[in-house]
Amino acid sequence: MEVDLSKVSARESLELRREPHWMRLGTGNSLGFRRMTSASEGTWIARYWDAIQSKKPMKSLGEFRELPKNQRFTAAKQEAEKWFLHLGRGGQTGVYTIANACKDYVKNVLTTKGRKAADDASARFKNYVLDDQAFANIELTKLTPQIIEKWLERVRLRPSTSGPNRGKLRSASTLNRDVTPFRAALNCAMEHGYISTDFAWRNKLKPIKNADTKRLLYLDKEQRKQLINVSAPDLKLFVEGLCKLPLRPGALASLVVRDFDPRLNVIQIPDDKGKASRQLELPDSVAAIFLKATKEQMPQAPVFRRENGKAWNKDSWKVAINDAVLAAGLPNGTTAYTLRHSTITDLVHAGVDLLTVAQISGTSVRMIEKHYGHLRSKVVKNALEHLND
User: How far is the C-alpha of 69 from the C-alpha of 26, rounded, in Å?
Assistant: First the structure.
């Protein structure tokens, strides 16, 4: 028997029982209300008619006890209709949370892109999504632009636990890197039918434009020598490697002794931002750094080690390099990536073709052209002059 659940008095007069009392909201779709004891507030339930599979999935909507009794029917009806719309668009039944979306995305990345990319996404989720349990447990169908905006407000700030920049705003490029896998996880969940629209995050999680602008801070060779000279003893070889090789700091820090062949002066870079391993033949001056760093070390030992014997990582080199920058009186904002930018700049200025620069530095020709193509003007000018010789 159908009842009118919109009135408080009607609900309170209903028989106490496990089976909900149902009110029809549309073709086959109903809103239910159940009270099993006189002391309970009553639970609201949505029931959907799936004509294709001839099933009637149900979803508990909760008690809405935070609202006055005369507002609970409207709130429950709205939640039920949102769920009906979700299912009508092909969405999945059951509770599927932000945490579920992140977990499934990591599995997908592991299969399609490999372990390193999966670990990167997993680490970002752990630090910026799953660290807030209340946020992580939100159902995707209940996501709103306002919820996403509050999350963004939190991750725009650096973690407050450690580091000289704690509590400061992240750079646009850093924020983009942290937001990208989260946006991808939500999109992946939508593709699999767990949510039928990207309205909640479509505009809020758009990449910040022009975030990856040209790195303008450049250190010449004398400045780089000064940085090497003032670096702490355990940092010195690592900084010297960064000053003479256009590698990502993480790629250089991940090298172990067995990656260097002293007979051929060759280093094997096993994995660098998801790209296939590659070899670099080193000039004698650079090979000397590796010979010194690997002398009498076990094959699995890091080439560039901290005082405690562990490999350098982002958290440790940031502080150490910042101290050296201050000691050398170098421009504020100088980082490990400044050294990579400076060495790439020198290669481009020297007239090395962009394909070779890209291969050495482990990136694409497109990225080199985007960030360093403007430096080719001098090379082009010299080439044009030769036409008139």
Answer: 23
Cβ 49 vs Cβ 27: under 8 Å = yes
Give 205-245 pLDDT, tens digit per residue.
998 876 555 456 889 999 999 999 999 999 999 999 999 99
Rounded to an integer, what distance in angstroms lies between the CA atom of residue 229 and that of residue 250? 22
**Nearest CA-CA partner of 129 in 98, 160, 100:** 98
Tell me the C-alpha distance between 96 and 277, whole Å.
Answer: 38
Q: For 123-134, how does the pLDDT look when each residue is reduced to its tens digit (9 = 90+)?
A: 999 999 999 999
Whether this model's pTM surpasses 0.70: no
Nearest to 238 by CA among 265, 162, 333, 247: 247
Question: Is the Cβ–Cβ distance between 220 and 330 less than 8 Å?
Answer: no
Contacts of 180 (CB under 8 A, 6+ apart): 207
Cα 310 to Cα 381: distance, rounded to the nearest angstrom: 47
**Sheet containing strand 260-261, strands side by side:** 260-261, 266-269, 278-281
Please state the φ and ψ torsions of residue 146, each to the nearest 5 degrees.
Answer: -65, -40
**Rounded Cα distance, 147 and 325, in Å:** 40
Asked if the model's pLDDT at residue 167 lies above 50, the reply is: yes
- How does DSSP classify residue 170? P
* Dihedral (Cα; 11, 14, 20, 21), 10-degree rounding: -80
Residue whose token pair is 């000279």: 229
CB 147 within 8 A of CB 138: yes
For the residues of 61-121, what is the DSSP string, one character each? EE--TTS-HHHHHHHHHHHHHHHHHHHHTTPPPS--BHHHHHHHHHHHHHHHT-HHHHHHH
In whole angstroms, what is the distance from residue 334 CA to residue 339 CA? 8
Q: For 296-341, how does the pLDDT look when each residue is reduced to its tens digit (9 = 90+)?
A: 999 999 999 999 999 999 889 999 999 999 999 999 889 999 999 9
pLDDT confidence of residue 160: 47
Judged by average pLDDT, the poorest of 81-90, 143-152, 210-219 is 210-219
Length of the chain as a residue count: 389
